Amino acid sequence: MSRNQRLAFLGIAAVVVVVAIVIIGSGGSDDNSGKTTTSATIVVKGGKPVGGVAKPVFKKGGRINLTVQSDVADEVHSHGYDVHKDVAKGGSVTFDMPATIEGRFEVELENAGTQIAMLEVDPS
Questions:
Q1: Would you give per-residue pLDDT tens digits along the chain (124 residues)?
Q2: Superfamily (CATH) of domain 40-122
Q3: For 9, phi and psi rounded to 5 degrees?
């Protein structure tokens, strides 16, 4: 084997080792890996969430940034965090709060009683 072939072989071996380390170090089997977000937007048309009930996932210790754009006026209520905000017809509201409580929490159009999201906060 020539010197250049040995160097090429060592270079390829080094790349394979680095890729293996990155894959092993990325966390493996965490059910929520890759699902977390830093912000989410829910669009409401005809009083219902477009695409069905949204399921945004946030990390505990981070921030929840959730925007609701609605074609109907109502009160948006985030259970668990117990935050209420009025949204005007054709308007939007944004919830920006620390993600301090882990679990799954319903977000609904309060007066209509329509669930628009199942917000999830995963432990860090």
A1: 787 776 665 656 555 554 445 444 444 434 444 578 889 999 999 999 999 999 999 999 999 999 999 999 999 999 999 999 999 999 999 999 999 999 999 999 999 999 999 999 999 6
A2: Cupredoxins -  blue copper proteins (2.60.40.420)
A3: -60, -45
Structure tokens at 92: 């939007």
For every residue of 7-47, which 3-state class applies, written as one string?
Answer: HHHHHHHHHHHHHHHHHHHCCCCCCCCCCECCCEEEEEECC
Q: Where are the domains positioned within the chain? A: 1-30, 40-122
Query: How many angstroms separate the CA atoms of 81 and 84, rounded?
Result: 9
Q: 31: number of CA atoms within 13 Å, CB side?
A: 4
SS3 123: coil
